[in-house]
C-alpha cells in the first residue's frame, strides 16, 4: 500500500495561482472536485460511521473502568444508564507495568509470531512463485491446488487442521508409524505455538504466492537474457534480477502481511477455542478473551489492549515507510 | 518511488504486448532445455507443495463421509463404510438451508455493495487529484490495523441505535468496512494500468466523468473487479466473530454461526460438522474457480507498477 500511496500523478496537475480567500477557495475547490468527492463519499461515510466513530468511542472507553456490569443497557422496557467512572490513564499503567503482568509475555509472543509467520509465508510464497513462473505441464493444476487454502473459508480449514492435530489424529498416527515422538499439538504450550504458526503459514502462503507471481511476470525477460550473456549463474540472476525486480511488490505484501498477521484473530481463536492455550494467545485474541472470555466482561481493558495494538502498528508502519523511503534515496 | 528499478518495472508494463510475448518465447526456449533431473525436482517439489496445500481440504471431505461421531479418530475404517448420510442429515434435519440462504444474501450483498463503492473510490483516487486523496489511501491502510475487539462494543451500540442489529444490511455494512479498503486499493492499482487516453476519449465524446467510469473503465477493469469480488465475497462468507454477536435470532444465522450452535447442540458431532464444512466450502470454491484465471493479473496490476 505504500507503493500505491506514492503513485505518480496521472493527470490534471493544477496550476498554482496566488491563494484567494478561504470561502472562495472552498467554493472553487468544491466546483473542481465535487465529482471526486461524490465518488469517494460512500466509502468515507461507511468507514467513518462504522470504523471512525467506534474507534473514538473505544478510545474514550480506555480511560474508564467500563465493564459489562456498569455499561448502560436496555432490559425489556427498563433502560439502565451508564455508571462507569473516569479513571484516567489507570488502565494503561496497570496493563503495562502492573503486577501479574499479562501484557508483555503476550507482546513478546505476538512479535515472534508475526516475524516467524511473515518470514515463512514470504519465503514459501516467493519460492513457489519462482517454481510456478515457467512453462511446464500441469501448471494450471498446480496453481489451483496451491491457492486452495485461500479459497476455502478459514473456519473450515482450521477445523480440518484441528482434526489432523488431535491426539489420535492423522498427523500423530503418521508420526507414530514412523516411530517419531507424538507431541500433544493442541495442549502442550510449546507445540501449540508450533501448530498455530504452521496453520497460519499454510493459510497465508497463497496470497503471497499469487502476489509474487504477478510481480515476477512484470520482470522483463530481456533482463534475464542480458544477465545470462554476462555469465551470471542462476543464483546470481535470482539475486540481482529477480529480487530487485520484486522489490515494489515485496514491500507492499510484507507490510500487509505484518499487519494482517499481527491482527490474525481467526486462526488462533478457531484452533484453540475461546478458552485455553493461554500462552499461545496473541494480543488480539488476548484482548478478545478479556472481552468475552470472562465475567464481568472487561470492556475498558480489552479496548486498552486494542488501542495499544493499533498504536504499535501505526508506529511500526511509519518507521517502515520512512525506512523504505531512505533506502530508495540511497539507491537512487 | 523513483529508483531505476521501479522505473524499469513501471516501463515494462507499458511495453507493447508483442515485445513481451517474444521475450517470453525466447525465454521459453532457454528454459525448454531444462535437464531431466531439474524437471523431476521441479515437479517433485511442486507436487509436495500442492499435496500439503490440498491435503487438509481433502481430509475434511473424507472425514465427512464417515457416518459415526468418532470416525475421525479411526480414518482407516471410513473407507469400508463411506456414505453420504451426514450430508443428508445436515440438509434435512438442521437449519442448514436457512443459514445457507442468509449467508448467500450477506455474501452477495457485501460483494455488490463493496465492489461498487470500492471501485468508485478507487477510480476517484486513481484519476482525480482532489485534496485528501493521499490521506484517503493512508486511511485505507490504517483501517486494516484495527483489531476487531476494540470496535465490538461501540459498534454494537451504534448498530442498535440505527436498528441495524439482526439485519442483513447491518452485517453487509460491517463486512464492507473490512473488505472495502483492500479492494479499493487493489482496484486503484488496476485502474492505474488503464491508459488515461481512454478517459479523455470518452470525455471528448461527451460522457460525464461518471459515464466514463461506468461505460468505459468498469468493463475494461473486469479482471480487477472479479478479484475484488472474490475477496469481498470470501471475507463475508468466512467471517465468524461479528456474525455471531450481531445476528441474534436463529432465523438470521449465517453458516459460520450455524456451525457453532451445532457443536453445543449435538455435543460436537464431528461428522456433521465436517459434512457442513464441506457444503460451506463448495460455493466459495465455485466463486474461486470462476475468478482464478484473473487472480494474478487482478491482484498485482497496481503493486508492480510502483
UniProtKB/TrEMBL annotation, chain A:
<comment type="similarity">
    <text>Belongs to the binding-protein-dependent transport system permease family.</text>
</comment>
<protein>
    <submittedName>
        <fullName>Sugar ABC transporter permease</fullName>
    </submittedName>
</protein>
<feature type="transmembrane region" description="Helical">
    <location>
        <begin position="107"/>
        <end position="132"/>
    </location>
</feature>
<keyword id="KW-0813">Transport</keyword>
<keyword id="KW-1003">Cell membrane</keyword>
<feature type="transmembrane region" description="Helical">
    <location>
        <begin position="299"/>
        <end position="320"/>
    </location>
</feature>
<dbReference type="Pfam" id="PF00528">
    <property type="entry name" value="BPD_transp_1"/>
</dbReference>
<feature type="transmembrane region" description="Helical">
    <location>
        <begin position="144"/>
        <end position="164"/>
    </location>
</feature>
<dbReference type="InterPro" id="IPR035906">
    <property type="entry name" value="MetI-like_sf"/>
</dbReference>
<keyword id="KW-0472">Membrane</keyword>
<feature type="domain" description="ABC transmembrane type-1">
    <location>
        <begin position="107"/>
        <end position="320"/>
    </location>
</feature>
<keyword id="KW-0812">Transmembrane</keyword>
<keyword id="KW-1133">Transmembrane helix</keyword>
<feature type="transmembrane region" description="Helical">
    <location>
        <begin position="194"/>
        <end position="216"/>
    </location>
</feature>
<dbReference type="InterPro" id="IPR050809">
    <property type="entry name" value="UgpAE/MalFG_permease"/>
</dbReference>
<dbReference type="InterPro" id="IPR000515">
    <property type="entry name" value="MetI-like"/>
</dbReference>
<feature type="transmembrane region" description="Helical">
    <location>
        <begin position="34"/>
        <end position="56"/>
    </location>
</feature>
From TrEMBL, chain B:
<feature type="domain" description="ABC transmembrane type-1">
    <location>
        <begin position="100"/>
        <end position="291"/>
    </location>
</feature>
<feature type="transmembrane region" description="Helical">
    <location>
        <begin position="168"/>
        <end position="187"/>
    </location>
</feature>
<feature type="compositionally biased region" description="Low complexity">
    <location>
        <begin position="1"/>
        <end position="15"/>
    </location>
</feature>
<dbReference type="Pfam" id="PF00528">
    <property type="entry name" value="BPD_transp_1"/>
</dbReference>
<dbReference type="InterPro" id="IPR035906">
    <property type="entry name" value="MetI-like_sf"/>
</dbReference>
<feature type="region of interest" description="Disordered">
    <location>
        <begin position="1"/>
        <end position="37"/>
    </location>
</feature>
<keyword id="KW-0472">Membrane</keyword>
<feature type="transmembrane region" description="Helical">
    <location>
        <begin position="99"/>
        <end position="124"/>
    </location>
</feature>
<protein>
    <submittedName>
        <fullName>Sugar ABC transporter permease</fullName>
    </submittedName>
</protein>
<dbReference type="InterPro" id="IPR050901">
    <property type="entry name" value="BP-dep_ABC_trans_perm"/>
</dbReference>
<dbReference type="InterPro" id="IPR000515">
    <property type="entry name" value="MetI-like"/>
</dbReference>
<comment type="similarity">
    <text>Belongs to the binding-protein-dependent transport system permease family. MalFG subfamily.</text>
</comment>
<keyword id="KW-0762">Sugar transport</keyword>
<keyword id="KW-1003">Cell membrane</keyword>
<keyword id="KW-0812">Transmembrane</keyword>
<feature type="transmembrane region" description="Helical">
    <location>
        <begin position="225"/>
        <end position="250"/>
    </location>
</feature>
<feature type="transmembrane region" description="Helical">
    <location>
        <begin position="270"/>
        <end position="291"/>
    </location>
</feature>
<feature type="transmembrane region" description="Helical">
    <location>
        <begin position="136"/>
        <end position="156"/>
    </location>
</feature>
<feature type="transmembrane region" description="Helical">
    <location>
        <begin position="40"/>
        <end position="65"/>
    </location>
</feature>
<keyword id="KW-0813">Transport</keyword>
<keyword id="KW-1133">Transmembrane helix</keyword>
